[in-house]
Write a structure and sequence with these properties.
The structure is a homodimer of 471-residue chains. The first copy, chain A, is an alpha/beta fold. The first copy, chain A, folds into two domains: 297 residues, 3-Layer(aba) Sandwich (Aminopeptidase), CATH 3.40.630.10; 152 residues, Glucose Oxidase, domain 1, CATH 3.50.30.30. In chain A, 34% of the residues lie in helices and 22% in strands. In chain A, the strands form two sheets. Chain A has an eight-stranded mixed beta sheet, with helices on both faces. An eight-stranded mixed beta sheet of chain A has the order 3-2-9-5-6-7-8-4. In chain A, strand 2 and strand 3 form a beta hairpin. At the A-B interface, helix 3 and helix 10 of A face helix 3 and helix 10 of B.
């Protein structure tokens, strides 16, 4: 990749690294951003702003659960940084939410082989008594086996459910195996289980830290205590169950709902020159799970989108306004993304969305959804991303959790897909710390985002609404 | 390595895999063990006993802190398995000990950037009040910096000490950087610190689980609360300290001494034919730290030494008795090893010691300490280990923690040194779980041990006492 970039820089038309000697007189107007895109892309490979933002947010704020004082500090931090960087219209748009907080959490095998297991509560988990509850464990290999089990096999027991999630570059394992977490607790509760512990919805096999994340309860089904075991602990429980003796577990999870609190989205803009050309809406989320400082999920998205927007801002005014939204309360149910969509969809000015919420590893594939007239924009972006090692996919661009509603509503989108092979080793665990961010891959992200923004925000073509491709 | 072994098997004199057709009449006596050694070695490359023992101990007992009910269950488990395997003279030799148990443990930055850090108490740590203690943090890059600091810089504060331990194949990093843990708390206490948290004495950089392990207090210095931060948390604290603002931490560690309890060593033998030839004493330790099932530390040593001894027992009677000791209470101060030495040194029958207590990764180097007359034994062992990829070192063989006293006392020894590059990623953390054991490397250990025992236990040479080489 390095070689290709050096070769590109040697082509005279692309050599923007050396500024021309200024003649006396009024400064010449800069070339259009779209012409500057290759140079902006290459310069971004030396970016340090994204890293500094990620380091700052994870160090100076740390974990920032939605609706808590820590998330409020994250908003203050973001507003201060965005103003300092020179963004326009920096503001917080707040919204109320119900807040769930973690309590104590322990699990231990009482019989036949007494020992502790590493457990964490899933978001929206019900609570056990303070001293925990003890019951026999009934194990299921996967969600289908639990769903097929008669209620009598489950009633009054602690359900264990496994799965076989493996790493995939496109992250599709999460959608495929995630229902163990999203839906498993509801299924167990409906069958009368006393509690449920799942194998963490993650791909690490040797890290003794469980993965949290939201679960959900069907209408009319009361929440039961629901936790995740680390993968080594799930292996251990499966070995214990395989001995064939009755297995008794004591589980204590004491989360609680603390009532309504305020969360908020932080908004900042790079003003465009043509208000009629629409708004380019990008972002990531500011909140994290409580277990880690959320370096990958999603300080990375904050750093990448802000750094790329800042590079455009410093290079010249784009045709379209670039609006960066750092969403609140994503982890706990995309509350900030939904609030933003509800509040602003009526304005009808958003013509393009793109989101960064899948860590900091390199972008490997680009998918685009544009109407026919705007498709050349995607072609130009793809051409610029080739030297960064990015292929072009044929899937529709869905944006992410926070901006997905816009794409589903017909707004044009590009997905700059990040490599997901490591992502679910750390996702929603205590281990989502700064050391997981690879600075070189992070810079490639900033370069790709900068190139995309230069082209899309400045494109002369109108960007219209997209007919969603039929599945 | 596979290729080499196949080649060796093709040499007629070494082809023991196919038994000869039995002529009628009394069965011929088996060849001497030393002649069988190459075949025994190669057969051990298919061993599954070591794995089964490790899987069994870690699953059916789990964590087994010295002096607790769990360690007593480990002894019962070991006695039952050793008898089942056919060992002779299986017994427990018990001894009393004072028991320290972990309590609650939390650390959080109170200011300037409130957030929790992952901490665990070091063995023999003092306790904070239940609600913890809050104090300003003073950070030191390493132990030398702490030692050089004036008392006034430390008094009443929470001391943080870092280090730069890196992975080494020979494990020497632990000796070099371990004093941060062994001695750091005592130095901080003597200077009047309120408490101390160290960077974990480990080599992982991205696992959010701290490393425990014993610390010590100088005569007359009262214990203070002493914990270890995971390496990512130590990085985080260093970043926070680097911001230059006063850093305040609240630390709660509530371990306690629960009084005298019994521990014990489990002993088993493969009886030899010549009582005058002395005893070959081998083993590992049965106890583990409380945070994990101790797969590497040291279920592995139990599995490797028992499996190798069982292979000798099944092949024929060796000249010397092989005694396997599975020590109690190693982690908390080599109490079992010291008790065994005190109790049995007077018998004068131990002529050779070797210990397995460094995980389950492959043996890469052999060091031997023999008197001149017995040196050919070491040469024969080294020749047998070459095809397993084992080099020959020139360092004295020191045995390990439990049997080191015998070697220091002049008993001949061989060190089968295991690869330590991964070992301190997991050592004394919650992550020392079964998944860390690589079955192929484990089998190489059993093969090397089997070859060594076949040669040493059956050697015709007398094995005398060793003059220790001068350093």
């Amino acid at each position: 990749m390095k070689k290709l970039l050096i070769a590109a820089a040697a082509i005279p038309g692309l050599a923007f690294a050396t500024p021309p000697i200024m003649p006396p007189g009024p400064p010449p107007s800069p070339p259009p951003l779209s012409e500057m895109a290759p140079g902006l892309r290459d310069a971004a490979l030396s970016d340090d702003l994204a890293w500094n933002l990620i380091e700052g947010l994870t160090t100076e704020v740390g974990p920032r659960l939605a609706g808590t004082e820590a998330e409020a500090r994250a908003r203050q931090w973001a507003v201060a940084r965005l103003r300092e960087l020179g963004f326009a219209n920096v503001r917080v748009e707040d919204f109320p939410m119900q807040v769930w907080v973690r309590g104590a959490e322990t699990a231990e095998i009482v019989a036949p082989f007494p020992q502790k297991l590493a457990v964490t509560a899933l978001g929206r988990s019900g609570a056990t008594p303070e001293a925990g509850l003890a019951a026999e464990v009934v194990g299921f290999r996967d969600l289908a086996a639990l769903a097929a089990a008669p209620d009598a096999a489950v009633r009054g027991r602690i359900v264990y459910v496994g799965h076989a999630m493996m790493p995939t570059q496109d992250g599709s394992g999460y959608g495929h195996f995630g229902p163990v977490r999203f839906a498993g607790p509801g299924i167990a509760a409906r069958k009368g289980a006393a509690a449920i512990v799942i194998r963490s919805a993650g791909t690490d096999r040797d890290r003794r830290n469980p993965h949290t994340g939201m679960t959900s309860w069907p209408e009319g089904v009361a929440a039961i205590p629901a936790g995740a075991l680390s993968n080594p602990d799930a292996d251990q429980l499966e070995r214990i169950l395989a001995r064939g003796q009755p297995v008794r577990m004591r589980l204590a999870l004491t989360p609680r709902w603390i009532g309504e609190r305020m969360s908020g989205n932080v908004v900042a803009e790079v003003p465009g020159t043509d208000p009629s050309a629409g708004v380019v809406l990008i972002g990531g989320h500011l909140d994290s799970w409580d277990l880690s400082p959320g370096a990958l999920d999603n300080a990375a998205g904050v750093g990448i989108t802000v750094a790329a927007a800042k590079r455009i801002m410093d290079a010249g005014r784009p045709r379209r306004t670039i609006r960066v939204v750092l969403f609140g309360a994503e982890e706990v149910g995309v509350i900030g993304g939904a609030a933003y969509f509800e509040r602003h969809r009526g304005a009808g000015d958003v013509v393009f969305v793109s989101e960064s919420d899948f860590g900091a590893d390199r972008i490997w594939r680009m998918d685009a959804s544009f109407d026919d007239a705007a498709r050349p924009i995607a072609d130009r972006v793809a051409a610029l991303l080739g030297p960064l090692g990015v292929t072009r996919g044929t899937a529709p661009a869905g944006a992410g959790a926070d901006l997905g509603a816009w794409a589903r509503d017909g707004v044009a989108a590009i997905s700059l897909r990040q490599d997901g092979l490591r992502y679910f080793d750390f996702h929603h665990t205590p281990e989502d710390t700064l050391d997981k961010v690879d600075p070189a891959q992070l810079r490639q992200n900033v370069a790709a985002w900068t190139a995309m923004l230069a082209v899309v925000a400045d494109a002369p073509e109108p960007i219209g609404r997209v007919e969603r491709p039929r599945p």
